[in-house]
Design goal:
Layout: H1 2-20, H2 44-62, H3 65-70, E1 77-79, H4 88-91, H5 105-120, H6 129-154, E2 157-158, H7 169-172, E3 176-177, H8 179-196, H9 211-228, H10 232-247, E4 271-275, E5 290-292, H11 303-309, E6 313-316, E7 318-320, H12 322-325, H13 333-338, E8 339-343, E9 351-356, E10 362-364, E11 367-369, E12 374-378, H14 379-392, H15 398-409, H16 413-416, H17 423-438, H18 444-450, H19 454-457, H20 477-482
Antiparallel strand pairs: 1-7, 2-3, 4-12, 5-6, 8-9, 10-11
Helix pairs in contact: 1-2, 2-5, 2-6, 5-6, 6-8, 6-9, 8-9, 9-10, 9-14, 10-14, 14-15, 14-17
Amino acid sequence: MKKFINNRNFLLGMLVFLLNYSCTEPLELAPISSIGANSFWQSEQDATGGVIGMYNQFRNLAARSLFYMGEARSEVMGHGIQNADFRQKYFENDMNEGNADLDWLQAYRVINYANLVLENVPEISFPNEDKKNDLLAQAYTMRAFVYFVLAKTWGDIPLVTEPVEGYDAQTTFQERVAVSAVFDLIKSDLDEAINLFPTNEFPSGRAMWSKPAANALKGDVYLWTGKTMGGGEADFTTALSALNDAKSANLSLLDDYSRIFDFDNKGNQEIIFAVHFSDFESSNNMYSDMYINALDIRDTYDQQTLETIGTPGGFNWWAPSATMRNQFTEEDSRKSASFLEIYSNEEENTFITSIVLKGNGYSEGGTRRFLDDIVIYRYAELLLLIAEAKNALGQDPSPEINLVRSRAYGDDFPMYEFTNGSQSENDEAILQERLFELAFEGKRWWDLVRFNAAFDKVPSLQGKAGQNHLLLWPISLETISLNSKITQNPGYEQ
């Protein structure tokens, strides 16, 4: 018996190793045949280990890439003190197939492990069937979310629904399929997940997919297809229904906006789903690229600025742009909780840079650790998604918008209370409210695309209306060179 337990522990260790091992090819889906169904996927413990591995891979994707894809190309970010380096081409929107360095490798690794769970877990006997269904529901939701990200970023993409356990060309090298087919799978996966989740409750820490999170994602998906793919009223109706189902869960707005993101307040009642970061489990996430290093602290900064910075850390590779910062009013409590403008306290009070305070982690032993959870969905966004769906259906979005504004403006709320206007006026107000509420949470670029506003609001895209290929990303030359079936997005060919 002891030998059997040791063998199983070895197999579990091997799985975790493979789940965390880094591949080198953009569509290389690492084989796992050495610990396939006959040797590993035998028990509830194995299934749980496989799902945990899926989340480990997702954390690698979320650490930076989700922000690059979801916000970096918007008007939110600009130059910091350091050289913006590869990030500059994002906010200046001058990417091409030659300088495209973001690929879909890690996303497909997450998908592959979701596929492994979906193929193998149904054959495992569980003492409690609800636990099995919950694990399967999480895998379906994860696959739906990652494909949603890929489809919004690149459009047509390879569609892989079975685990790749070898290197034969038929399974490893896939052609791109129409984005409509990808969304068919996304919607099907979400329906499967929502039917499988045994309860409408959140797991401890709210760092795993749940039924409310799946419904929030479903609403997000149907708003996207309703607005960008011609889904119209039918999709908006489905979105609103799913979002209202999510709203029925144990959710509320925190009184203090700044406390949503604090390291010591993870899994709070506003969180619907977040990616868990913790010491000894992961390295600093994207927020370390938006703070300020000790070498850049000057004795000309005033005391309040120094106290707000606290322990320096990371680097100011890029920073909140003036275009974004100047849209906030002083009465909005989200301003001081989201970013800090730094000036040199000299005669001319020279502007130096700005830093992101949301996600700034914690200090320990004179070191700042950027390990706040990355929030995927939270209640305030859910309210704004409901407002968006209601407005698309000709309904009054005021209640949801005003719930968000009431917290943001406090005693000054009467000055900013929202009043229902025309559909286009409401859409503009909702889009603007999402900027204030969700800045630096990886949402803005996709919001601009969904609201058809990218060419109006992003300075580097103004004057380029009609060049719609710029709404997608180029596929890296490395990706194309490694898979002859992959073709470049139109408009990016050299």
